Each structure stands twice: as C-alpha cells, then as structure tokens.
Amino acid sequence: MTGRRPATRVVLAIMMLVMALAGIGLGVWQVQRRAWKHALIEAVETRSTGRPIEAPGPEQWPDLSAERDAYRRVTLTGTFLHARETLVQAVTDLGGGYWVLTPLEGKTFTVLVNRGFVPSSRRTGASRKAGNADGPVRVTGLLRITEPDGGFLRSNDAAEGKWYSRDVAAIAAAKGISRPAPYFIDADTTANPGGYPVGGLTVVRFSDNHLVYALTWFALAIGCVWGAIMIWRRQ
Questions:
Q1: How far is Cα 119 from Cα 12, in angstroms, rounded to an integer?
Q2: Is the bond preceding 56 in cis, omega lying within 30 degrees of 0?
Q3: How many CB atoms lie within 10 A of CB 181?
Q4: Nearest Cα residue to 215 out of 38, 30, 18
Q5: What pLDDT is stored for residue 223 in this prediction?
Q6: Separation in Å, CA 19 to CA 15, 94, 123, 211, 228
Q7: What is the pLDDT of residue 5?
Q8: What pLDDT is stored for residue 4 in this prediction?
C-alpha cells in the first residue's frame, strides 16, 4: 500500500501539469482571438463610415465574404418593388415590430433592401403609403450578409409568410425575385416621407470578452501548477 501512494501522487501531479499546459494554450489562443477581434472591429468601423461604393454586381458575388465585406457602405440606384416587400420580425430600440425588406430592381440585378423598422400598427403598405416611393431612387446603406434558416429557436416559414431572419435566398424564392444579389442592404438614416420605415437602426456590435477568458485560463493554469506542487510535496 505504501508503495502505491508515491506513484499515485506522480500521476496526479502529471495530470495537473497537463491541465496547466492546456490552460496556457487556451489563454494564448484567447489573446490571439482578441487581437483578431480588435482588427475586425477597426475594419468594420472603417467600412461602415467610409465613402459608399457601388453595390457589388454579379461578377463580384463569388468573392464576397462576411469578414471582408460585411457592413461596407454601398449605394445602388433602382426601382422599389413594393408589392413584393417582406416583413421580418424585429426587436429594436423603438420596440417590437418588423423590418421592411423591399426588392430594389437595378439594371442588371435586384437587391433586397431593409428599408427600416415599422411597428405592428404600420405593417401594411397602405398604412405608410407616403413612404413607398415610385420611380427610380438611390439607396445608400450597409451591405449585410444573408441570415439563413431563421431566428433563435424559430424557423422561417415561407408558406405562412412568417420570417424571423433575413434569409435572402429564401425570401427571393418566395417572392419570385429574379437576379437576386446574395446579400441585402440596411438603408441609412435618410428619412422616408411619412416617417416610416425608420432606417439607420443597424447595430454594429461585437462581443469582446477575450481578455477575461484569457485571464481565466491563465489563472486556472497557475492553480493547476500550484496543485501539482502541493500533490508532489504531500507526505
């Protein structure tokens, strides 16, 4: 019995040291993630406040990516197809209601434009007719990447017309939109006649808890080293 106890201590001490190494590795990884996140935040800040460029056309679609293009300021001229608008449930600083996604038909392709927020009392086009412009318009806003499938614990139901996320491909198919771009545009704060929809409510926010996570892993690593020493010294 007495011969087994030192071996047991050695095994436990080694296990604690392995856990310490894992903690150090995870802490370093979080430090790297923090640097990547800060670079992303800086890039998005630059894109979202920079001079708008023309919305990417079909020849550019294969190269679009969330990391490189999301929240870029873009502009496009076209005609709104108000009869094919889609309401997507939303919760904003103005309360609960809907995003109004309307196809903007350009010369060679069509883009879904999130024109902004409306409360439930303004969900019908007739209740905000003044804001539904006819004829060519020029829209400026932020390029957003499609949101497939649905929202949290709720799936989009095209047959019932219930939408919880801005799934570009599914909405385009449901509304019979031809030549749809694989992204949508969040319209800027330019006011619509009549006040609705209310644009410019895009929230550009990224969680940045990597430093806390890194310190936690490093603290656990130190604790494991201390535990290994105590186990090794125990009589």
A1: 61
A2: no
A3: 26
A4: 30
A5: 92
A6: 6, 48, 56, 20, 10
A7: 55
A8: 52
Q: How many other C-beta atoms lie within 10 A of the C-beta of residue 197?
A: 25
Distance of CA 27 to the CA centre of its chain: 25
Report the distance separating Cα 16 and Cα 218, nearest Å: 14
Residue 65 carries which side chain, given as an amino acid letter? S
Whole-prediction pTM: 0.76
Ranges in the chain, pLDDT < 50: 1-3
Bridge partners, residue 136, by sequence: 79
Run of H or E residues at 181:
strand 180-187
Radius of gyration of the chain (CA): 26
Say how far apart CA 142 and CA 176 lie, in whole Å. Answer: 24
- The CA-based angle 227-233-235, given to 5 degrees, is 120
Alpha-carbon span 63 to 73, nearest angstrom: 17
Question: What is the residue-averaged pLDDT of the chain?
Answer: 88
pLDDT, tens only, 89-105 = 998 889 999 999 999 99
